[in-house]
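>> Question from a student workshop board

For tomorrow's exercise we were told to take the sequence and the ligand below, predict the bound structure, and bring the output to class. My setup keeps failing. Could a helper post the expected result so I can at least see what it should look like? The ligand is zinc ion.
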Amino acid sequence: MPEAILWRESGISLRWEVLQDLLTAYHFQVQLRGEVFRDLTEEASQRIARRMAEIRLVSSDKEVLNPNPFPVEIAYEKRQMMAEVKKPGPVYSGFDFLALLRDFIPAKERSLRDYLHIVLTVKRLATWGDDRWHLRTILFSIPVVISLTGLVEAPARDRDYYILKQADPALGDRWLEAHKSDWLDYEDDRTTDVVQGYLYQAIFWWRNPSEFEFCKNPECPLYNSHWQKEMLRAQRQARPCPLHSPLP
Ligand SMILES: [Zn+2]
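>> Workshop helper replied:
Here is what the output should look like for this input. Compare the format with yours to find the bug.
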């Protein structure tokens, strides 16, 4: 039986039993774990802190990262590693972050056939494309990484919001207040349901990584949402569409 290992940054609180049940329904043996970066030697934590500082973005439209970080940036990363509750902090290059995580996944658990590793983080993760960085909700690899901050910030809110906000920030705030059901907030009660939708994506990706495709049905959790409204509709569906059901 394959194992699904759900790694959680400290401070993240979700309804874990819901996520665990979903993975169990897909015949995984499930393990909940804490941080990937844990029980570290001084040397290892220094190395991670330096690498994290190196892979932060310096500009949203320059692909180059931060190869010579300032000591204060490295010190920030070190404090974050120790923190009980993490801050989203700067934006990081998602695939570089993922590669660093992978280095700390036990070597015997790196086979994609036997293990589905999923890391939940509050870090802001972006990927480069079309001459700019794009914030991401989920990245598929070993491990799959889901950014809770990305759920709030990566899919766009309605155009009206941006138009109003640009005219006057107070109008933007008023829009947010009046349309709470249309966008996900930080620490939102609906976060677990949305994460569940992304777990479906992780599971279907894991089954056939080279041929994984998003679903065209906007009411399927495998739909590739670009807007908050779409995400709150698609990813919160309790079950995939008929094409992606029933259970294996
Ligand atoms: Zn579907």
